[in-house]
Amino acid sequence: MSLKDNSAGRRVRIFDTTLRDGEQAPGFSMPTEAKLAMAQALAALKVDVMEAGFAAASPGDAEAIRRVAEEVEGPTICSLSRTRDEDIRASEDALAPAARRRLHIFLGTSPTHRQAKLKLTTDEVLKEIERSVSSAQGRFDEVEFSAEDAIRTERAFLKEAMQCAADAGADVLNVPDTVGYTSPEEIYDLFKELTATVRRREGVIFSAHCHNDLGMAVANSLAAVRAGADQVECTINGIGERAGNCALEEVVMALKTRADYFDADSNIETTGLYAASRLLSELTGQATPRNKAIVGRNAFAHEAGIHQHGVLEDRRTYEIMTPTDIGLPSNELVLGKHSGKHALKARAASLGFDLGANHVEQVFAAFKRLADEKREVTDSDLCALITGEHDAGADWEFVRVEMRSSSEARMRPFARLTLNHRRRGRISDIGTGDGPFQAVFNALCSATGVAATLDDLSVTQSAGRSHAEVRVLYNEQVFAGGGSDADIIVAASEALLAAFNHIERARKRASALLVGAA
Ligand code: KIV
Ligand code: ZN
Q: Per the domain annotation, does 135 fall within a domain?
């Protein structure tokens, strides 16, 4: 099958790498169940290709790819691979259950990558491309080759590498700006030359993969599209290595909004963009900036009087897209005490929550109580109602904490604590550690069943009181807490417990979303 489709304007393929390039960035790692929930949201968006991971990177990555391949219908499922045979085999195994499978082979081509990382000559790089791409033929539905650090590769050698991959049978020739170094004019010129000079079979396409180190990933991807790229690689919310990748929602909405200029569009179901963005934030615990293009809270908000007046007269005065284009509830739909279940369900769905029949009754009752107290129920009120955060108080409370520590080397600091959990009741546990705070922390991990790490704890003293600040790491996310008391141990324990309460809330939010997405 040809990958190229030039029927009505050009249709640009959307290759999503949220679950690979996005997930490998610090703070964004996701357990398999979260990856599956995200993969279903990407399928609902109708991405053309979903890179589900890097099979040879770890057994966990391979397992996640296999689950996505088994359970997610629609997009082509892809696995990243080095040129090594064992990587190709690991991808082959993990992708086996998918209806359509793509192998994505990459190899560094720039002088820095060749000399510093690979220790290969240009001839050896070409041989490696030829060998790996040829050996993948017939084992996958599609093979993509990426010349890692293409932008910093000598142009003549990049052309040779691409020609070599095309001759060996690659279906997609990807040009990564691995370090986010290029500019729109430069990448436009490069794609013009590559698309004009690399000889290839009918249907073989060029692809852009841009990182955002200089804040130009979306602009560079769009410039590549103008110069002939038929595929863009991107991630939800622009997550990815360092400053991230090209943001899917931005490139897609730019193509849709300026189809007149780009003469190209994607197949993305844009009304799912807001929900996909929110789901990712909830699953990773990383909020999107308020002013983020397309999906940030301010993207469709009008505060200034002149703007509000203009928008009320005709929204086109200050809006180039409508909120409903991305699946945001329309500005007119305000949830208040007169709203019914239908409006509540629709707003919950646009926030990424699928309320089942029982849950909707429960949330609706809580919503009515809140709407009586507040004139307007906001999105964050609704999220809190759905995840149960609106009920008063924290989940965990201290009943008692005791500490023993001694100058004797033989006696390790020891903590005993009793907690009360809102639903689980009283729990007592003990912990030891290198210091008294670590002992309390270990006792907390054991009592709450949360395997966290203590990243930082600082205590200051003023006016006879101790003030503690802590940072706790859980699932590669940071949870902070603060506490204050006349007793230094109690202050630190309160700060630690506050962080554990934040973790509990994040876990509840994620599991509510997973249930909704299942
Ligand atoms: O940025 C990059 O070069 C990559 C490749 C593996 C495609 O992510
Ligand atoms: Zn990348």
A: yes
Q: Whose CA is nearest to atom 6 of ligand 1?
A: 106
Domain boundary among 253, 284, 315: 284
Residues 268 and 315 in one domain: no
Which atom of ligand 1 lies at the shortest distance from residue 174's CA? 7
* Ligand 1 atom closest to residue 21's alpha carbon, by position in its atom list: 8
**CB–CB of 413/435 below 8 Å?**
yes
Ligand 1 atom 2 nearest Cα = 178
Closest ligand 1 atom to residue 150 Cα is 3
User: Ligand 1 centroid vs 110 CA: distance in angstroms?
Assistant: 13
Please check whether residue 258 lies inside any domain of the structure: yes
Q: Determine the distance separating the centroid of ligand 2 and the alpha carbon of 50, expressed in angstroms.
A: 14
> Which residue's C-alpha comes closest to atom 5 of ligand 1?
148
Closest Cα partner for 485 from 404, 403, 409, 424? 403
Q: Mean pLDDT in the chain?
A: 89
Answer yes or no: do 383 and 400 share one domain. Answer: no
Domain final residue, candidates 258, 284, 310:
284
Residue 441: exposed, middle, or buried by beta-carbon count in 10 A (0-12, 13-18, 19+)? buried
CATH number at residue 407: 3.30.160.270
Number of structural domains found in the chain? 3
Name residues whose C-beta falls within 8 Å of residue 328's C-beta, 6 or more positions apart in sequence.
Answer: 274, 300, 350
Predicted confidence band at 392 (pLDDT cuts at 50, 70, 90)? Answer: very low
Which ligand approaches the C-alpha of residue 207 most closely? 1
Interval between CA 291 and ligand 2 midpoint (Å): 24
pLDDT, mean of residues 51-79: 97
> What 3-state DSSP class applies to 134?
helix
Residue 103 is inside which H or E element, if any?
A: strand 101-108
Q: Per the domain annotation, does 290 fall within a domain?
A: no
**Residue of higher predicted confidence among 278 and 252:** 252
Q: What would the mean pLDDT of 385-409 be, rounded to a whole number?
A: 76
pLDDT tens digits, one per residue of 462-491: 777 888 888 888 887 777 777 888 899 998
Nearest-atom number in ligand 1 for the CA of 106 is 6
| Protein residue closest via CA to atom 8 of ligand 1 | 21
| Mean pLDDT value of segment 39-68 | 97
In a domain, 48, yes or no: yes
Q: Which of 136-150, 232-246, 414-428 bottoms out in mean pLDDT, i.e. has the lowest?
A: 414-428
Q: Kindly tell me if the per-residue pLDDT of 7 is higher than 50.
A: no
Structural domain harbouring 74: 12-284
CATH number (domain holding residue 126): 3.20.20.70
Residues contacting ligand 1 via CB (< 6 Å) = 21, 80, 106, 146, 148, 176, 178, 209, 211
Q: Whose CA is nearest to atom 4 of ligand 1?
A: 178
User: How many angstroms is it from 49 CA to the middle of ligand 2?
Assistant: 15
C-alpha pair distances (Å), 307 with each of 178, 292, 293, 326, 328 = 40, 19, 18, 21, 20
Residue 228: exposure state from Cβ atoms within 10 A (0-12, 13-18, ≥19): middle
